[in-house]
Specification:
Distance between the termini: 29 Å
Radius of gyration: 29 Å
Largest sheet: 6 strands, parallel
Strand content: 15-25%
Helix content: 25-40%
Length: 536
Amino acid sequence: MSTPRFNRALFGNLAVIAVLVAVAVLLLRLHLGEGWWQASPLPWQWWSAAGAGAVYAFACFVLWWRVRPRKEPASDTGQPPLLIVWASQTGFARQLAERSAQSLRAAGHATRLRALDQVDAALLGSSHQALFIASTTGEGDPPDHALAFLRRVMPQATALPGLQYAVLALGDRSYEHYCAFGHQLDAWLRAHGAQPLFDLVEVDNADPDALRHWQQLLGQLGGIASNVPDWSAPEYQPWQLQSRRLLNPGSVGGPVFHLALQPAEGALPSWQAGDIAEIGPRQSTAAVQAWMQVHGFDPGTRLPDGRLLGELLAASQLPEHAADINIAALAAQLRPLPHREYSIASMPGEGSLQLMLRRQLRPDGQPGLASGWLCDYTQPGDRIDLRLRSNANFHPPAADVPLILIGNGTGIAGLRAHLRARIDIGARRNWLLFGERHAAHDFHFGDELQQWQREGWIEHLDAVFSRDGGAFHYVQDALAAHAPRLREWIDHGATVLVCGSLQGMAPAVDAVILDALGSEAHEALRIAGRYRRDVY
């Protein structure tokens, strides 16, 4: 549980009300005091009453101003502001909602922040995107102020087909009904036609790993610039780049690279299929040198603790203005670069931690901060700041459970790790559906996947290439065509894992599964943990 936060808005309103009460008492005393019944009150009584009345009127105006309806900020696109809703018992959910709003605003997105009891069906119906940050108290109960929403809004037959949403569920795993209210809210939104932007994120006792994952998803949702700092920085370990190779030469898409990494010291740690590598990116040497030259700093400048200034700058956001500032002040104002998350494409038994990533480009055509550093600037032997993060929501099922893997683009990285793990435990009932642009250039791990199919490790392999004019255009088209097989596998207890694009592929696949299975079976699959996604 988090500690209660000081509520300045509530305190301010109470203070204004206290002033109103005090003034009212003063007026009453003036009327009930000596001489109030006289036909000609004393002059000082007139002046006191007039002054008190003016103070009373001013206090009323202040209270009205504080609670007046605010005009929502306008969006540059003409779309409604992104709605951010919090349900909090101790104030922590509200704090996270405010941080989320601040991050999105920093990226130029209009937002509106509401407590759940201030939300009605009309507000939800008029919103296009909404984020819900919901605490669970006691044994699965909602926060007290959320009861109004449960009693007033949730019983309504509200249709929300135009709403995309996400839920951050806060809870304590030591309780039986962990994150129950967040799941209840998620289920209600789905049942009323709202479309999830990404799967519900659970947070156990303010777990910083889960909160960093939420912030990463916010970045993907809002296209947040790389200068938005982490709420809590990962504790990285030193790794080294072992090798890097281009996977798709000649592709019309962005270059995709395969990287292999090793710990700088000690043995390779263990991880499970579905786990995440958190990478601490660095500025390129050229960018750091250019910044130091522009701002008049010598490359050999050292900090008071003996570190080179260039080393700190490489791991920091480079400020736009740093003229006439001493070294200590500069070091104090630097903020570390935010982390990046990548699905691990290998298992420990393969001898290295392998990543697969596409080089991203900024609007000015320059490589993205993290992908440019990893794909262009690092060399074998260079240090990589990396931390492993468990991703329990995307861990594999038991060996005797059939597994359906669906993904596109670089999403094949996480799916490959699952296939490798299944081979290691002798599980053969695997069905892979994968989509990209051209088979000649973009069939990532194609030779290996086809070999695994020949050896019987992949029962069905549906590779779909949108630019080749084949039977299917996208991976969701192949899944829809094989709906009878999908239902058969689900009836036999299969788990479905989806990895890849948040926009386009993931919602389209979800719609196919919903259409093939029906809403009740679709919901039952989710509740049982047999339908899970890692989308970005």
